[in-house]
UniProtKB/TrEMBL annotation:
The chain crosses the membrane at residues 17-38. The keyword NAD does not apply. Keywords: Cell cycle, Cell division, Cell inner membrane, Cell membrane, Membrane, Transmembrane, Transmembrane helix. Residues 117-229 form the Cell division protein FtsQ/DivIB C-terminal domain. GO terms for biological process: cell septum assembly. This is Cell division protein FtsQ/DivIB C-terminal domain-containing protein. Gene3D superfamilies: Cell division protein FtsQ/DivIB, membrane protein fhac. Pfam families: FtsQ_DivIB_C (PF03799). The lineage of its organism: Bacteria, Pseudomonadati, Pseudomonadota, Gammaproteobacteria, Moraxellales.
Length: 244
């Protein structure tokens, strides 16, 4: 190998090394600038979409999330969802980043199907929650369910089943109570009351629905209450005839 050839190789190696050093320095500079921009970035704006929320619900959620202050990229989206879930009346929360708007929050409230007790609602999933606007508990007409909160889902499902069985008679549950002894107390929209125990409950109620649509139908309006806590039959209380 000639002296000239060795000199050329050495020169190229030096240039390659300098190129690597330059590339490394440029990368370090870019990372440093990026880190400084990251640190100096303004606090991201949190935008709560009002769609599906009442004015009061939108305001309450916005106030709660206003305490979450961080930059656009540093904002923990899962933390925002977790904070939002502190509001028991919220059902779904979706959080995304938007270059133009900031941190966008879309939320849907739970939809009640009945009151649970006097101060709470229950939704179709059987979840009990306290509404933000308490006046909704009395401003609108809701069936009322009562029992141990741990049994809330079962009580709600029982109401839905009873409504479907007695729908042909235009009977809908107005009040339903599950006692600690697993006895069901049901009052329908016509005032008719039904008591049934926890043994073969489904079969007893389905049989009653059938009887009220067939043999007992002619006297349905005369009935005040039915007690199904018997193995072979039922007890019927009749309305007292009005005196003229």
């Amino acid at each position: 190998m000639t002296q000239q050839h060795m000199t050329d190789l050495h020169g190229r190696s030096l240039m390659d090394w300098l190129g690597y050093v330059f590339a490394f320095l440029m990368l370090a500079l870019v990372m440093m600038i990026g880190y400084r921009l990251y640190q100096q970035a303004p606090v991201a704006k949190i935008v709560v979409y009002p769609t599906g929320l009442t004015q009061q619900e939108h305001q309450r959620l916005s106030e709660l999330l206003a305490q979450q202050t961080d930059t656009f990229f540093a904002t923990d989206l899962s933390a925002i969802i977790k904070v939002s879930q502190q509001l028991s009346w919220l059902d779904e929360v979706r959080v995304t980043r938007d270059w133009q708007q900031g941190i966008v929050v879309q939320a849907l409230p739970k939809q009640p199907v009945a009151r649970f007790g006097s101060e709470r609602f229950i939704d179709a999933k059987g979840e009990v929650f306290t509404p933000l606007e308490k006046r909704r508990l009395t401003d609108e007409h809701w069936p009322t369910l009562q029992g141990d909160p741990s049994q809330a889902k079962s009580i709600m499902q029982q109401m839905q089943q009873v409504n479907s069985w007695f729908a042909p008679l235009d009977l809908m549950v107005e009040d339903m109570i599950l006692t600690p002894r697993m006895t069901w107390l049901i009052r329908f929209n016509t005032g008719l009351r039904v008591v049934v125990d926890g043994e073969n409950t489904t079969q007893k109620l389905m049989t009653l629905s059938h009887l009220l649509q067939t043999e007992l139908y002619p006297r349905l309006d005369e009935m005040q209450a039915l007690d199904l806590r018997y193995k072979n039959g039922m007890a019927i209380s009749w309305k007292v005839p009005e005196s003229f």
